[in-house]
């Protein structure tokens, strides 16, 4: 049975476009996440630590060893008073 060579061009275009779209989506998601892979299967503890990290650094993926919240950022307890 002969190979329909005419069908390989559209097939190649479709495969290329899906590959480009997936790569651009991956780059976009990682760029918004400080070039780190996404987190899956988060538990309550992870969410609390992410909230803490966001208060300390301004981004939920940022981490610091300084346990003091900077003055430029407000805390939830200060907002409720």
Q: Biggest sheet: strands, sense, closure? A: none
The helicity comes to 40-55%
State the order of secondary-structure elements, H for helix, E for strand. HHH
Radius of gyration of CA atoms, rounded to a whole number: 23 Å
Written description of the protein model:
The chain is built from three helices and no strands. The longest helix has 25 residues, at 8-32. The radius of gyration is 23 Å and the shape is rod-shaped. The chain has one domain (12-72). The chain has 81 residues and is mainly alpha-helical. The termini are far apart. The mean pLDDT is 83. The protein has helices at 8-32, 44-57, 76-80. Helix content is 54%, strand content 0%. The relative contact order is 0.07. Residues 62-81 have a biased composition (Polar residues). Belongs to the complex I NDUFA1 subunit family. Residues 58-81 are annotated as: Disordered.
